[in-house]
Amino acid sequence: MNRFLLEMFATVVETRRLTTAARMLNLTQPAVSHQIKHLEAYFGIPLLARGTHGVMPTPAGEILYRHAKQILGQFDCLEREIDDLTNADEREVIIGATPIAGNYALPCSLWTFKDRFPKANLHLDVGGATEMTRGVLQRQVHLAVVEGEVPEAIATAPGIKCRCFTGDELICVTPARGQWDKGKLTAESFRLAPLGLPGNATGLTPYIEQSLAGQGLTLKELNIMSQFAGLDGIKLAVETFGGVLVCTRMVVQRELRRGLYRDVTPDWMRLLVPFHLVYREETLPPVARRFIRFIAAPEELASCWEATENPPSC
Fold it and tell me: For 3, which of 74, 123, 211, 223 is 20 to 30 Å away at the CA?
């Protein structure tokens, strides 16, 4: 029995899906199934049962889950006390992120992690995917968090670990008072609508192009009014002058809840954009390893990232 087995079992219980748990843990689904069987053999009793809503813990599984969470909580206490004995340099983590992850999800995660591990020294830089992932390659950044695809030259570089850990839905929104809020957009109305698009730094352009190609459209045929690197600038422009904003759900989730925006996404535009962690595993400081475990945990994805129920797999 070790920490990983307890984390794996807790993740399966919390996600209710072996495949989702496997993706979060960077494992294959058969590997997770094998470890579950190992736990059941160890205790001599079934721990999970399949139901209409995925796998559910049996009474024995409920007991194991409860104690697993308590034991994992004790591990957190252990790590906090060890932090008190380490040098400040060993507690530093430099994180690079692309605009959506860096501006809309990571600040919450960093705050929560810092509250849980006060001695951790976290730094966040926001930029394009190439810039942030090159920082990992050149050992200037411990960890990069990237929406969209990781540049191939980085993903295939020796020693680089590239891991998909969640995803977000590509959507179209418009101000609630605007003229483009009469239901879902058609391909023709989308072509004519004044559009605000995110800049290339976000990594969304290939997914927008993929959606358009299915309708026989290209970016050049659209009525693009603005394409900013800063997403808040595009939001302000769309809110002021009207039109349609294309982004991912986490960018506008607050406005949607408050009724300030309407979701007018056509079915052909709804794609899931993957989010990746990129790092050098062999040189990660312990605090960075802890942060990777933390950020990919189901409860953190649900709270700060508000992850989709079925995020894309890598």
Answer: 123
Q: CATH number of the domain that 124 lies in?
A: 3.40.190.10
The conformational region for residue 148 under phi > 0 = left, psi -120 to 50 = alpha, else beta, is: left
Dihedral, 142, 147, 149, 154 alpha carbons, nearest 10: -10
Query: How far, CA to CA in Å, does 160 sit from each of 122, 200, 285?
Result: 21, 23, 15
Rounded distance between C-alpha atoms, residue 197 and residue 177, angstroms: 20
Q: How far apart are CA 242 and CA 249, in angstroms?
A: 19
Q: Are 141 and 135 in contact (CB under 8 A)?
A: yes
How far apart CA 34 and CA 192 sit, in angstroms, is: 53
Under 8 Å between Cβ of 256 and 263: yes
Query: Facing residues of 212 across strands?
Result: none
Among 83, 110, 136, residue at a domain's last position? 83
Q: State the pTM of this model.
A: 0.74
- Structural domain boundaries enclosing 50: 3-83
* CA 47 to chain CA mean position, Å: 29
pLDDT of 309 reads: 44
Domain end marker among 66, 83, 100:
83
How many distinct structural domains can be found in the chain?
3
pLDDT in tens, 212-232: 999 999 999 998 887 776 788
Q: CA separation (Å) from 246 to 33, 63, 204?
A: 39, 45, 9
Tens digits of per-residue pLDDT, 110-162? 988 888 888 888 999 999 999 999 999 999 999 999 999 998 999 999 999 99
